[in-house]
Design goal:
Structural class: mainly alpha
Largest sheet: none
Mean pLDDT: 90
Number of helices: 3
Distance between the termini: 57 Å
CATH superfamily: Single helix bin
CATH topology: Single alpha-helices involved in coiled-coils or other helix-helix interfaces
CATH architecture: Up-down Bundle
Strand content: under 5%
Number of domains: 1
Number of strands: 0
Radius of gyration: 27 Å
């Protein structure tokens, strides 16, 4: 997801409380990147949000795939024509 962080497109407010030390550290990091504190916090939070959602999606997909794999092991589908041909070829070539 690509988000536009330009100033004129901003209409929502996010509030957060931080310690003085945390704010100073964030301000220093923003200054190093040459951006405002607000831009730094938003871009960093968006980056982390994307990573979090991507990791969650992979875990969810892995769980779904695991269930499908287990189901295929427990209740395997009947072999299709290509598998039967491969089995016959294997028997003819390997188990002569």
């Amino acid at each position: 997801m690509v988000l536009d962080t330009r100033q004129e497109n901003r209409s929502e407010r996010i509030q957060a409380r931080a310690t003085k030390q945390a704010k100073e550290l964030l301000e220093q990091a923003a200054a190093v990147q040459g951006v405002s504190l607000s831009d730094f916090v938003i871009s960093t939070a968006l980056e982390q949000a994307n990573k979090t959602l991507q990791a969650h999606g992979q875990l969810e997909l892995s769980a779904r795939d695991s269930r499908a794999f287990a189901e295929a092991l427990i209740n395997p589908p009947a072999p299709n024509e290509a598998l039967l041909v491969a089995r016959d070829r294997h028997l003819a070539e390997v188990e002569r």
